[in-house]
Amino acid sequence: MFIGGPCYKPDNQIVCRFNKTIEAAAVYISPEQAYCITPPLYVVGRIPVELSLDGGATFNYSGTFRSIPLGRNPPDVDGLEVEHWANSTTTVLTWNQNALNESHVDIEISLFDTFEFRIHQANLASFRDVPNSGSYHLDFSMENIISL
Predict the structure, then answer these.
(1) Nearest 10 degrees: CA dihedral of 101, 102, 108, 112?
(2) 3-class DSSP state for residue 112?
(3) Which residue has better confidence, 146 or 65?
(4) Closest by Cα among 105, 121, 125 to 113
(5) What is the pLDDT of residues 45-69, one digit of tens each?
(6) 33 CB contacts (<8 Å, ≥6 apart)?
(7) In this structure, how many other beta carbons lie within 10 angstroms of the beta carbon of residue 29?
(8) Which residues, at least 6 apart from 147, have a Cβ–Cβ distance to it below 8 Å?
């Protein structure tokens, strides 16, 4: 999970706490961004997440996180199976636009390494201020990848 920040410092001891009970260390990326690998949560749906900058002594920042188990999506989230996108250069992301109380959304695509269980720090692509229409067409053809 990427966390837009309250002006992080490289020496902050950033900790995420999920559902008031499960803590996980976060990794500093920049003054504006950190990430936390979500641990097994054993719950599905919207759960509270809190952020500490002092190693877990205090949690002064909070938000909501939506937990979706691997391989299973709730009815309003569409997942794509490998056979549908592995050999294609286009993908359409869809979501329930009414579930987000925003006129525009940001979309970030990251690379997750399942062997090392970590997110690579660089985003593959970022799309800012996308109209919340419920879908977004991505074109991963070679000419578009070069321009990203």
Answers:
(1) -10
(2) strand
(3) 65
(4) 121
(5) 788 999 999 999 999 999 888 776 5
(6) 2, 3, 4, 5, 8
(7) 18
(8) none
- Structure tokens given for 81: 């199976």
Cα angle 135, 138, 141 (rounded to 5 degrees) comes to: 160
DSSP 88-138: -SEEEEEB-GGGS--SEEEEEE--EETTTTEE-SS-SEEEEEEE-SSEEEE
Residue 89 sits at φ, ψ, to 5 deg, of -100, -5
Strand, coil or helix: 85: helix
Region of residue 45 (left: phi > 0; alpha: psi -120 to 50; beta: else): left
Q: Specify which residues 43 forms β-bridges with.
A: none
Q: What is the pLDDT of residues 82-101, one digit of tens each?
A: 445 555 667 778 888 888 88
In the chain, the N- to C-terminal Cα span, in Å, equals: 22
> Which residue type sits at 111?
L
pTM for this structure?
0.51
Domains of the chain, residue spans: 2-67, 71-147
